[in-house]
Amino acid sequence: MTRGCMVSSVMESLRDEERALLQAHGFDEAMFARLRARLRSGAWQESDNQVRGQVERPAPDDVEVLPAPGSVRERELHERGMAALRAGEVGALVLNGGMATRFGGVVKGCVEVLEGCSFLGMKMGDARAWGRCPVLLMNSFATDMPTRAHLEAHDYFGMDPEQVLPFTQNVSVRLTPEGEVFRGRAAGSTLYAPGHGDVVEALGRGALQAFRARGGRYLLMSNVDNVLADLDPVIVGAHVEAAEERGVEMSVEVVQKLAGDQGGMPARVDGALQILEAFRFPKRFDVSTIPVFNTNSFMFSAAALERGFELTWFMVHKRVDGASVVQFERLAGELSAYLKTRFVEVPRSGVRSRFLPIKRREDLREHRAFLADVLAERAAE
């Protein structure tokens, strides 16, 4: 079967509305055909996700530490960050593509966290506090319209609508393990958003250019459910300084690992420091020897994102409607293999915590009072 025939067979098996969604959201038919052919050939194994090359733990000085609170050094970085924020050079890049299955299948960003304020409301409030800070909001095909309606219903939580730049990530097609188009019981189960690794590609369809045209130079990316990852001037100032003085293009926030934590970690691959997801480490490598993992909160120098990146496509097995499916996904953390990157350890407890993801309703009930106290204290500073 030729590549063209394989593409046609997939597209022709889809409904008109599904094809329209794919065409409107960056679906690369030729790339999908290559990935599907590799799956169907049986040559693609999950072990292929493992990185090639020599993998080593980070050196002791590969992960920076924040300056002591109240120190001269902290004040220097704070002022540098404040200058960039006041000048409108910083934007908040919020990942809002997830449907909260553990919240009952609702749009995660629209879930109320504190009275009258959702996850999205908190992200808008953080940006609003800095006046000229735009929010670049990456939605998925499933969250885009509900998110826009939510923001309009709440008057953008006091944010100037002109400062909100929504854009949508890509869409792809779920397959069975045999490489056929998956059809589940639930409507809409065939299509999915293929991971946050398409953020650069999606930004490049207009939002990044709009941000740069307004004088934007730096972006702080975070998940919508991690409301503590705010536009802290010290975090901003540290990246600005590293960008201007060392040519750093990406800053990665890491925290100390706790039991059960999973995620990407700093590692050296053939000597190059980067994020390596847990499933990419060689089987013989003991990942417990790396004490930190990344929070998916990154700062980027926006100009660096105007380049193209050949990120790895991973084969991911999931359960949908009780059935096994295959998805092809990319991860934003792999940008660290292409950009000049620094790692900085941030707190995950106390008033300075920058990492408290809320994945379940139980998490929200457990941490709501803590979030309210932290946010109130930060607002008073």
UniProtKB/TrEMBL annotation:
Descriptive protein name: UTP--glucose-1-phosphate uridylyltransferase
Family label: Belongs to the UDPGP type 1 family.
Pfam families the UniProt entry points to: UDPGP
Biological process annotations from GO: UDP-alpha-D-glucose metabolic process
GO terms of molecular function: UTP:glucose-1-phosphate uridylyltransferase activity
Keywords: Nucleotidyltransferase, Transferase
Source species taxonomy: Bacteria, Deltaproteobacteria, Bradymonadales, Lujinxingiaceae, Lujinxingia
Top-rank taxon: Bacteria
Gene3D superfamilies: Spore Coat Polysaccharide Biosynthesis Protein SpsA, Chain A (3.90.550.10)
